[in-house]
Amino acid sequence: MGKRVLRPGGLELTQRLLSRLQIGVNDRVVEFAPGLGVTARLTLARKPASYTAVERDASAADEVRRYLSGPEQQCIVGSAEETGLPDTSASVVYGEAMLSMQPASTKSRIVSEAARLLAPGGKYGIHELCLVPDEVDPQVADAIAEELSGEIHVGVRPLTLKEWRELLGAAGLKVVSEHRAPMRLLEPVRLIKDEGLLRAVRFVWNVARHAEARRRVGAMRKVFRRYRDHLCAIALIATKP
Ligand SMILES: C[S@@+](CC[C@H](N)C(=O)[O-])C[C@H]1O[C@@H](n2cnc3c(N)ncnc32)[C@H](O)[C@@H]1O
User: Whose CA is nearest to atom 2 of ligand 1?
Assistant: First the structure.
């Protein structure tokens, strides 16, 4: 439908994640699931020594490749669970809006893969949906997972902050920074902030003209609104000792 920014905390939280990752000219960066390359462009503007994206969807990978140049920049079609990239070859790994929708075992495999790719001292950044508070009623957590999965057609399983930290910790990573933002993915103000006025209007127009898209976007926004007290966006950075 033309929406390019699909992460829960929007571009604002992405900017905070990137500034905390402090990507510079000596960094070897791996991005998991770049989608349409919005964050890739921000990263490339920092001129890292190398940039490798791993994207499962071939047409999204083609989009990302439009922003790449030279032998040190590549986008491979593959899974973040098993990238085929060498051990300790990255100083920074990050991925946005790509763990929340995976089942628990896949979440663990992706985080372990990030840890494997990182050189000691390297940083892993994530930007995901978060359940609040840590003691959230399990029935509410199940209802959110079920309703979001019903609309997005995948097993969306957001974690609490404590669970995200445990997931990273289990792969031997140490969380060193955390930022929170409200979950406003489909709200008008966020839409304009993330996409710009023109793209936002185009998105609304596209959705309005397609009955099924209108139903799904409406249903998703309803879930986000109904559970707004229990959902937020989180950006975490963990380091490999
Ligand atoms: C919700 S979008 C997020 C895209 C982008 N990171 C963003 O925040 O706007 C999910 C993207 O993740 C990709 N993806 C999901 N699971 C993946 C995996 N295990 N490995 C590589 N890419 C994956 C999908 O193909 C899709 O492009």
Answer: 35
